[in-house]
# Entry
Amino acid sequence: MPLQALRGTTDLLGEEVKRWSVVEHTAHRIAQVYGYQELRTPLIEDASLFLRSVGETTDIIQKEMFRFEDRGGHDIALRPEGTASVVRAYLEHNLHKTDGFAKLFYLGPMFRAERPQAGRFRQFHQYGVEAIGSESPWVDVEVITLCLHILRECGLTGAVVWLSSMGCRNDQQRSAQLLRERLMKGKPKLCKECQARFEKNVFRVLDCKNPTCHEIAWRSKVSPFVLCEACAAHFDEVRRGLREASVSFDDTKIFTRGLDYYTRTVFEVRATGLGAQDAVAAGGRYDHLVEELGGPSMGAVGFAAGIERVLMAVDHGRAEAAPMANRRRGVYLAVATPSLIGEGFRFVQQLREHGVCAVMDYDGKSLKSQLREADKANCQLVAILGEAEVKQRAITLKDLEQGSQETVSFDAFVDEVSRELKTLCQR
Ligand SMILES: [Zn+2]
Ligand SMILES: [Zn+2]
# Structure
């Protein structure tokens, strides 16, 4: 039996790749509009990077991270998320000394050994941004606005922002104490992992997938977070900024993010069609991560969006595929006899140099089957080169969309085709 792709991974072909490409290009383009520059980090990192940032007691580290020892005995991990790598790179390349405030964009695969289910993959893909070096609530506003702007350009309407604040580290210590008191009575019924989490990191009990733990953790419908005056003021500023930017949000929902590095603002962008627990994008502030990874103390905020989930949500909101997908484009050059392949190739190459998508057959197929292929390849124009045409130094040009036909001289050919094709080949 031929080999197959691993469970939880997927191949992308045909129209699917085009749809992905649209999301990737849109995210990149809009991020640049907001002043975010792309950065690319490796897919593998020292596992300790994620232990120190994401947190040892999180599900991501305990159950989901792909972790292995290389031949030299190093503890390696496939990156389960993007933020830790971006901050590591920010410090490694001294951007805190040269740039100070840096706005970075990333895009690529992430890896988690989750049980594969709808919209969850072992290799999944995210784009995201990190704004490192500011505590200003306006940066939170910018990041949330940017996140929604990209989704809107991708065709996702009706997304809802859940907004909350987890407070500073001091607040989190107080909140943890209050949460322990609240959960104390149910403690004996918590699973083995949550027993350990109860002392070490009680917030992680809130994301346990065990139904009993979930019931105990969420029994009281009160936010687990208490805020000091400064954090409450920061949260107010974020909300005020969002209102000024005409971004609507819901700050009544109680939720947590399953990573340890978050402080103050956290948010999730939710869309229908993904199941009750799930968000298309999420992010927040992480004001201590830079310092915890060996840098100076500086504020930072970012978000990540899952490309698979964005596409699922767009599909759900719009039953049919993007209208662009099936539009005819490019030119197919058909030759009447195989002896004209060389002549034809010369024209095809000239078109390509002009940025026009041009294809032809090199196997000596009949004219009839070349025309069939042109239709199948969804070309807008077919150029036919025959013996008689070559003698007259002219080419027949058929428009498959309009059904029209004309004869064009060799000299005018490239200009004429470029003019007639409304769209260039997608790069
Ligand atoms: Zn605080
Ligand atoms: Zn549990």
Observations:
- Residues 320-324, 423-427 have pLDDT under 50 and may be disordered.
